Amino acid sequence: MGNPISFLMLFSLLVIVNGMTIRDVKESQIYIVYLGDKPQHNHECIAESHDDILASAVGSKEEAKKLMVYNYKHSFSGFAAKLTKAQAKKLAEKPGVLRVLPDGRHRVQNTRSWISLGLSNVGLPNNLLHQAHMGDGVIVGIVDSGIWPDSGAFNDEGLGPVPARWKGICKSDGLFNASKHCNRKIIGARWYIKGYLHETGVNVAQFNETPEGTPSPIDIGGHGTHVASTAAGSFVSNVNYYGLDMGMFRGGAPRARLAIYKACWDEPKQLCSSSDILAAMDDAVRDGVDVISVSLGGSYPHLPEVSPNNAIGSFHAVAHGIPVISSGGNGGPITSSIEEVAPWMISVAASTVDRAFPTPITLGNNKTIMGHGLVIGTRVGFTGLVQEDLPKRLNEGELNQAPVPGIEGKVILSFFKDYANEYPRPAVQVADSGGLALIVVRPLDDTDLYAYSDTMQHPTTRIPIVEVDFEAGNEILEYIERSAEATVMIGPSSVLVGKPLTPKIAGFSSRGPNALAPEILKPDIAAPGASILAAVPPGYPANDNGFAFMSGTSMAAPHVSGIVALLRALHPHWSPAAIKSALITTDSHETPIFAEGSPAKIADPFDYGGGIVNPNGAAYPGLVYDMGREDYMNYLCSQAYHTAEIYNATKETPAYDATAEQLICQNRYISLMNLNFPSIVVPALKTSITVKRRVTNVGPSNSEYRATIKHPLGTTVSVKPEVLVFDSNTRTIDFEVTVEAAQTMNTGYMFGSLTWTDGKHSVRSPISVRTSLYSMH
Questions:
Q1: Scanning 206, 337, 435, 540, which has the fewest C-beta atoms within 10 Å of its C-beta?
Q2: Per mean pLDDT, which range of 28-32, 552-556, 699-703 is the poorest?
Q3: What percent of the chain is predicted at pLDDT more than 70?
Q4: Per the residue annotation, which of 74, 181, 198, 223 is the catalytic one?
Q5: Could you say which of 554, 703, 753, 768 is catalytic?
Q6: Pairing of strands 291-294, 139-144
Q7: Cut 0.90: pTM above it
Q8: For residues 695 and 735, is the Cβ–Cβ distance under 8 A?
Q9: 598 a catalytic residue
């Protein structure tokens, strides 16, 4: 069975962290049975062995075949099957069965951005986009809600033959015709629905009557199409969005190929099943993708989790040399809301872009105030203006009763004081009551008033929503109170781009620190995720000419996926960890980055990881912090003792086999802070601590790097040696970093950095330290 010990460790940790042991659940549900590394390359024999194992628990092979949902046999060995609690428990006790987990549920997370990242396709012949030949030959796997293949963003103009190493298929079903819809851009398309049907209780006949129709790779909700086109969409000239000239559209790696794995469904309920996701990832590894992009949320949003499905699938993908990029979650600005914390994944936070939609608000007294929104089409001509306390109506339940009196044919002004996006629901009621537009007054720092153009229109009636700060809002209110009949004209919006607009970390973007393993920094990196324009199906709300705006870390992740595709084209032999290190250590922002919240603040590594992604810097980082499978096993061993202690004490899970783990881990060094991550987090510094790191030179062979340290407040940081000298015989060098407390008191986290520079490259590792008089454990 290969080396089942390592996979036992992986699953033990995942199960304990999520509390996902075999519990009292409904009589029959889907369970994922994990058997570890695949014992051989004969997939038929592996599948046969799965039948035998399942038969031993359910009574016969015939019954086993009826209950089998998926065989996982390409990147690892396991299966998904419909089982009762008793059958699952029986299976868990079988020799060779490492873990049995109940199926889980996931959800999707919801131009200019590439230019803002330095990847213009015009001029700049030395940027990463051109050096990597726009990703030509790289295959990007998208695990999401499918694709709308008729979009112009997936044309194959100028692309060569499908890479000969490709082993995947295009599967014709329903509205998806492989001979028509697959080309030299979309080279693979599969779908996975067995887990979804079981989770929702819908049978195939019922599903066929939904808007989805016969199951196929076709995307009707728009999320998967938006993600795929962001990562690797083709060139589309002269994109016009409701009269606004948006210029040339393309994805991050426009000459890369797309392999689509539809594991998320929109009707009758938006859901992604764990077993379907895992099957998609297993096929993606077998098919030969070079990058996997997964913009999906976790099963249990209240937990700081390693999602078993994403973590298991991504662990095996990374072990096969395939980087996996995941959205970090939309739970911000709440502390420790980051969802995907597995250290082998690249977890992405969302930033804004340097683009705004200033919108004039002209009052009846000829005073014009600039708001921020997106008034598409024609302006709202002079009409009545009234003030309504929509939050109060919302809290008192009045907004459930349509229509709201006195607002038909008028523009509404309303004040919103809280950070949370309260106004979309009132906007719906305003639209349904005949209101023409909504002026939202809210704290300027509470949200990026430049950013969320996808929330600036009611998706059905396209009612404009324009935001202003309290100063402007009070000025408008004063005008209303002094006028016998206040009137207003709104729009049209214009597009403003460039340096005056500084990117920020979006308020919705999930934050660290990592609650599971505080010593591991998460998120890893930030990328544009607010108001991203990309391709959508024709039926998507606010779609115009096949494009629409969306916001979310789901939009940030495919930005990084496109960049990783370019890096794979430029450096095909780099490991996933080397690519991740290059992304984290090369942020080039010289001015502070702000993070939206209540209140807004200067961003820190728990908001953006290493910073906002710098593709051109990542192409030539100079040094990388490399890691492999054994390093991740050290991480799992380090976690095992602590999680066993915590969760056995709570008695929320069955007894943890610490003896077995000690045998596994006895020859491993298990300090999390000594793992070779490109960042340093010290969650409880009492006096001093020394951590070890190793860097690999990927730049000129004869190089000399010197250390520059920015000390976190209240600490002193030193490094030995202070100079790293590389030559043709020395490619890797170990060094030590010592962090000492300069004060004996409890503090919050303070931040600094260690930067290695040779005059050309700057390799920056964020340092996060919290001093504490008490031990964490």
A1: 206
A2: 28-32
A3: 81
A4: 223
A5: 554
A6: parallel
A7: no
A8: yes
A9: no
